[in-house]
Amino acid sequence: MTPQRPEDRPRVVLGVSGGIAAYKACEVLRRLTESGHSVRVVPTESALRFVGAATFEALSGQPVTTGVFTDVEQVPHVRLGQEADLVVVAPATADLMARAAHGQADDLLTSTLLTARCPVLMAPAMHTEMWEHPATRDNVATLRGHGVTVAEPDSGRLTGADTGKGRLPDPAEITDIARLLLAAPGALPRDLEGRRVVVSAGGTREPLDPVRYLGNRSSGRQGYALARVAAQRGAQVTLVTAHTVDLVDPAGVRVVRVGTADELRTAMLAESDGADAVVMAAAVADFRPVEHTEHKIKKSDRDPDPVALTRNPDVLAELVEARADGKLDAALLVGFAAETGDADTTVLDHGRAKLARKGCELLVVNAVGEGQAFEVEDNAGWLLGVDGTEQPIPYGAKAVLASTLWDAVSGQLNGK
């Protein structure tokens, strides 16, 4: 494969403001550069008190300046914003957001923000009291009104012994959101504010003995992407997650952990009542062993008896049935179907039949195969509606598929 030329790579400006979380910008920078982006770091003077310019220059391969009077002949305070495909500010302190909200341009970073006509992502980081202060909330609303994506901060350990909301989202999450905005600049409108959604993710594990289980290849990435995108679009999100592979919990999302299909069923029935939308993205094992032995089955034992299996509950079907019986108040139910075609029936035909059988409003159909659906970063498929609509979803990041699904959900919830 021919290496991508520097001029062909997506151009990202990474702004870094002066908070203790500035050191995490180095990981954001590394992830962006290693995924093929050309990144120019623009720190504030305060940020350089936490991380030196030499570190940013070494990681980005580009010069680092803070003021507008360096390389004046190149007019960097205008050019950087004009030429960028994306501007990311991580961390975005309360001070930086206040200056940006009011159009100040007293350094290179705020000047770049004023001239940028590309998507702008700000990842806040500050103490809880600062995040919750009315002035900060007003500034966030102003920035969002100007089209800036202000990410929901995480909750957890802050500076010192403090704990609460205001922690910088994980660098992996910031990078995922950045990739989403590069691929689909309008992917994160605040159209789910005031909505409560429930998403399931991961693969259930059905124990055979204390060591072994029946499971599947689900990594949980698609469900996590759905939860992350919904939270960034303003929803109150609960993520019911079975087994996943090294995934960071999405910022601003309540996480409920389960193991087996029965545990997932119980959690989904409890969490879904009163939800505006429920998305069943988890890969629920279809069968479980009838018996769970108390000790490990040894290879030295006599030939073991065949493992008897019994069918697991169909969680989505139970949600649909509970709603029909008036036992569950949920506005919109969405399913996922991982399918393979055969000699007589295509993947899409299988999906159409499953939508009719399940009784949900929307169904995402994925074709399973080498490098598709499971254990990969990207996905593709079709979004089927009970009204007969069929929308192809081209191959791309799972966050893009998530955004496409939430577009459809938002449209139905808001009567569009």
UniProtKB/TrEMBL annotation:
Example GO BP: pantothenate catabolic process
Gene Ontology molecular-function annotations: FMN binding; metal ion binding; phosphopantothenate--cysteine ligase activity; phosphopantothenoylcysteine decarboxylase activity
Cofactor binding note: Binds 1 FMN per subunit.
InterPro entries assigned: CoaB-like_sf (IPR035929), CoaBC (IPR005252), DNA/pantothenate-metab_flavo_C (IPR007085), Flavin_trans-like (IPR036551), Flavoprotein (IPR003382)
Residue ranges of the region described as Disordered: 150-169
Enzymatic reactions: (R)-4'-phosphopantothenate + L-cysteine + CTP = N-[(R)-4-phosphopantothenoyl]-L-cysteine + CMP + diphosphate + H(+); N-[(R)-4-phosphopantothenoyl]-L-cysteine + H(+) = (R)-4'-phosphopantetheine + CO2
Assigned keywords, A-Z: Decarboxylase, Flavoprotein, FMN, Ligase, Lyase, Magnesium, Metal-binding, Multifunctional enzyme
Keyword Transport: no
EC number assigned by the record: 4.1.1.36, 6.3.2.5
Function noted in UniProt: Catalyzes two sequential steps in the biosynthesis of coenzyme A. In the first step cysteine is conjugated to 4'-phosphopantothenate to form 4-phosphopantothenoylcysteine. In the second step the latter compound is decarboxylated to form 4'-phosphopantotheine. Catalyzes two steps in the biosynthesis of coenzyme A. In the first step cysteine is conjugated to 4'-phosphopantothenate to form 4-phosphopantothenoylcysteine, in the latter compound is decarboxylated to form 4'-phosphopantotheine.
Family that this chain belongs to: In the C-terminal section; belongs to the PPC synthetase family. In the N-terminal section; belongs to the HFCD (homo-oligomeric flavin containing Cys decarboxylase) superfamily.
Name assigned to this protein: Coenzyme A biosynthesis bifunctional protein CoaBC
Organism: Saccharopolyspora montiporae
Native organism taxonomy: Bacteria, Bacillati, Actinomycetota, Actinomycetes, Pseudonocardiales
